[in-house]
Specification:
The structure is a single chain. By secondary structure, the protein is mostly helical. It has helices at 2-11, 18-39, 48-58, 71-96, 99-103, 107-132, 138-148, 153-181, 189-200, 202-221. The protein is built from ten helices and no strands. α4 (71-96) packs across α7 (138-148) and α6 packs across α8 (153-181). The longest helix is centred in the last third of the chain and has 29 residues, at 153-181. The chain is globular and about 60 Å long. Keywords: Cell membrane, Membrane, Transmembrane, Transmembrane helix. Pfam families: VTT_dom. Belongs to the DedA family. The chain crosses the membrane at residues 21-46, 71-93, 156-176, 188-209.
């Protein structure tokens, strides 16, 4: 009876809510969600940013939810899920090309693909692969796009590992640091998640600003 109730609670999980996912699947769920979000086009809607931040927060035991995660296994699961997912997405892109994306009817997914291609063309492989990690949806579609566009395997792997570790470990440790230093942090969880996600977009915004500034400078000299 107890097993049946537990299974029922897992089946009722809200995949768009970080707390619901963590309550149902714990640390293992973090790895699986990040793999799906970064490696499978169907995972573009998953809450990677808020999941990482909330999971880090729950490692402190101060959230008042009764759920406490272990930091070391969480960091491992987050890194493995993010890196393995990205590499899987790249390999799928190399084999299937744009066929997988073409089958999707999601306007949001196609918009993400357009932005991913723009990143690759504007900033080059290294910057684009790293920056894409911090942009929802784009981090899902850039990996198969990179594979379809035949970005060299070594180049893709080096920079997806760099960006993947910065994103997955950075957001997790940010949640842990705030949870350890702010009393009753649970009351401010939603605003803090919004702030963290906003901060994660700063590198992208900075690159966009720099690119436009350089373009204007070239026009002025011309």
């Amino acid at each position: 009876m107890t097993t049946a109730m537990h299974l029922s609670s897992q089946l009722a999980v809200n995949v768009l809510d970080a707390r619901s996912l963590l309550s149902a699947f714990g640390v293992l769920g973090v790895g699986v969600v990040l793999f799906a979000e970064t490696g499978l086009l169907i995972g573009f809607f998953l809450p990677g940013d808020s999941l990482l931040f909330t999971a880090g927060l729950l490692c402190t035991g101060t959230a008042g939810s009764g759920l406490k995660l272990s930091l070391a296994p969480l960091l491992v699961a987050a890194a493995v899920g993010a890196l393995a997912g990205s590499q899987c997405g790249y390999l799928l892109g190399r084999r299937a090309g744009g066929a997988l994306l073409a089958r999707s009817r999601s306007a949001r997914l196609h918009e993400g693909a357009r932005r991913a291609e723009e990143l690759l063309e504007r900033y080059g492989y290294a910057k684009a692969i790293v920056l894409a990690r911090f942009v929802p949806v784009v981090r899902t579609v850039l990996n198969p796009m990179a594979g379809a566009l035949r970005v060299p395997v070594r180049t893709f792997t080096v920079w997806q590992v760099t960006g993947g570790l910065g994103w997955s470990l950075g957001l997790t440790l940010a949640g842990y640091a705030l949870g350890s230093s702010v009393p009753n942090v649970d009351r401010y969880l939603l605003p803090m998640v919004a702030v963290i996600v906003g901060l994660s977009l700063i590198p992208v915004a900075s690159e966009v600003y720099r690119s436009r500034r350089d373009a204007k400078a070239k026009e002025a000299r011309g």
